[in-house]
Amino acid sequence: MPPTSSWRPWRERRTSRSYPPHCAAWRCTTLFRRILLGGSAIPADRPANTVATYGMTESGAGVLYDGLALNGVGLMVGNDGAISLSGPSMLRCYRVRLDPKDAAGWYRTGDVGSVEPTTGRLTVAGRADDLIISGGENVWPDPVERLVAADPHVAEVAVIGRPDPEWGQRVTAVVVPVDVAEPPSLEALRELVKAELPAWCAPRALELATSLPRTALGKVRRRQL
């Protein structure tokens, strides 16, 4: 909390208020100078006054803003795309006294990404264990999910890999339909994906569900599907 002397102007600037999703103010982004986004996939059509943050519990909060590390934060991407972070905000250890950092103070996040050479901005592809390898090709769920979600018959979607004797893993779309009586067709979803991504990214199977298991932050629990 800011010092008492700056509390009133800080509140009047509305830089840190929290509104429930059903509140009209939540949907009116012009009420705020900046809105920090995090905890889930960032929408591509986000308003201009939003900042995409990257971080986790172990980093204390978001430590990269719009792909750039904050002052004092170290960012390293290995040859395999593994993202590691360091800095003064990183945890010392877990409650069981286990320190997950290496001897040099780097914390391996479990995410995979890349850094744009000219800007130095980080792009996160996804969790390393979310990657689907089908027929020797890498398929990240997030871009496939964004395309499948554009189908008007789809309320929610999660893309996962199912074991397949021929392809190794089968790209599978688990969909909560808007109307159970009129679910989307697999072919329609495949065409949506193939219009923008390589054909191997298109789902080879469609599974219907009544809901998707999620964390308290709204992330899909893929392992429970």
Topology:
Layout (H helix, E strand, L loop, with lengths): L3 H9 L11 H4 L7 E3 L12 E7 L4 E5 L2 E2 L4 E4 L4 E5 L20 E9 L6 E6 L4 E3 L2 E3 L1 H8 L5 E11 L3 E10 L8 H9 L10 E4 L17
Any overview of this molecule?
- The chain is α+β, with helices and mostly antiparallel strands.
- Helix content is about 15%, strand content about 30%.
- The protein has 4 helices and 13 strands.
- The chain has helices at about 5-10, 25, 140-150, 185-195; strands at about 35, 50-55, 60-65, 70, 75, 80-85, 105-115, 120-125, 130-135, 135-140, 155-165, 170-175, 205-210.
- It has a 4-stranded mixed beta sheet with strand order 1-2-3-4, with no helix packed on it. Strands 5-6-7-8 form a 4-stranded antiparallel beta sheet, with no helix packed on it. A 3-stranded mixed beta sheet has the order 11-12-13.
- It is globular, with a radius of gyration of 20 Å.
- The two termini are about 40 Å apart.
- Residues about 1-15 have low confidence and may be disordered.
Main sheet properties: 4 strands, mixed
Shape: globular
How many H/I helical runs? 4
**Termini Cα gap:** 40 Å
| Gyration radius, in Å | 20 Å
Low-confidence stretches: 1-16
Order of helices and strands: HHEEEEEEEEEEHEEHE
Binned, the helix content reads: 10-25%
Please, what is the oligomeric state?
single chain
**Which structural class matches the secondary elements?**
alpha+beta
Strand content: 25-35%
Largest beta sheet: what is the strand line-up? 1-2-3-4
Annotation, overall tally of beta strands: 13
> Mean pLDDT across all residues, rounded?
87
